[in-house]
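Sample 3 of the quickstart, ligand zinc ion:
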Amino acid sequence: MKYELETIPVWDAYRAGGECPVCILEKKNEAQNVKYFLGDSVMDPDTRVAANEKGFCVYHSELLFEGGHKLGLALMTHTYLARFLADLRRKRAEEPDAKARSKRPSVEWPAFFRATRSACLFCERLAATIDRYVFTIVYLYKKDEDFRKTFHASNGFCLPHLARALEMAEENLSGAIREEFTRELLALEEKRLAVLEGEIDWFTQKFDYRNQDKPWGNSADALPRVLQKLKGHRFLDRK
Ligand SMILES: [Zn+2]
Ligand SMILES: [Zn+2]
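Result:
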């Protein structure tokens, strides 16, 4: 599969440094998508149909709720609920009675209701953008020697984006370069995780009164950085 290249934003994210360049891009994109979903997309019929169908996960519902445009969100939530209610009515009408149930299984109600928590149009849109960035990283690694040097000097990725980078390399590289990318990336990652392990260890030891006056070193913000490394962009720039 081919993706559009995003060379400039990828270089900018690498220049910014930190635990994961893709997290920087994801956070920026997420903020743009909040504006998109609360703005133009409310009037776009295709997006409205998709939003009615899928809705938003808990996290993105919360982001949209805090996004400063209650009317936009209320319009989308209203049509989502109307569609959901129609679906519920249809399913209830189709539900077999006790006699017929032996022949036809009843509706999987728990799964039906639970699906509303996880399906998310926002997550899908964001993931498609992230794929373009990760594809660009793999592409630049193959084509650009300067980028390869920058990549080797970086801190790798957070674990969710590491997984995507490995998949993307598997799909889009072959032969020796694929071997090298995977091996170098895993080495980079292991080295960085060992540094972080030391930093968060020192963070916990600073709570001991005997260490009170000793310097923090790089550990003052170790907790959000380690959480970002393990969990992804939601912990980027947290204090
Ligand atoms: Zn990341
Ligand atoms: Zn989501």
